[in-house]
Amino acid sequence: MKSANQGFSLIELLIASSVGLIAMGVVGSVFLSGYQAANKRSLELLLEQDVNDAFRLIKEDVLRAGYVSSGASSLKLSGASNVVYVNTDNNCLAYAYDAPDGRRYNEVIYNSNKSKLVYRSSDVVKTMATACNPTDAYSLLYEKQIVVNKFDIKNTPISSASATSQLIKITLAAHLKNDDSVSTAKSIQIKTRNWQ
């Protein structure tokens, strides 16, 4: 007669342990690859969201450029020929408008030395000579993680029989500091509202 309390043999235990370890390894690798894919996707979303937010701020500001609350002619920087002063040499936009809290002078500047896009808004009067200087400006993108590769501005005048305006095309390319494979390149076109 055979004993009913017979246990597993050493070989059966080793086989069962090996199968268990292989199963745990497969499940772990699937979990790890899923985690890495989710992490990369969240970084891509961070980059996309930051670039979209920067474009939204620039577009809203440029559409306000030249607005004067008194209804007089459009406001321009002193010496500028257009509502939005575009300096293509240092990739800068400068403009002014009346806001509820007073007149605002705003600048968007690409600082190529630091590979970042900066923004400055102040109530200090700006002219063509004093605009587009990146001191005391803050980064439009999360500079600890995002590097701006490219920021180009193209300015095309639009004319009618009685007034002129501008069509501004802005191209922005950026990537993550620690991962060049996570990158984006976008462009927008903005037609200034306040004709001169």
UniProtKB/TrEMBL annotation:
Annotated Pfam families: N_methyl
Segments passing through the bilayer: 13-35
This protein's UniProt keywords: Membrane, Transmembrane, Transmembrane helix
Protein name: Prepilin-type N-terminal cleavage/methylation domain-containing protein
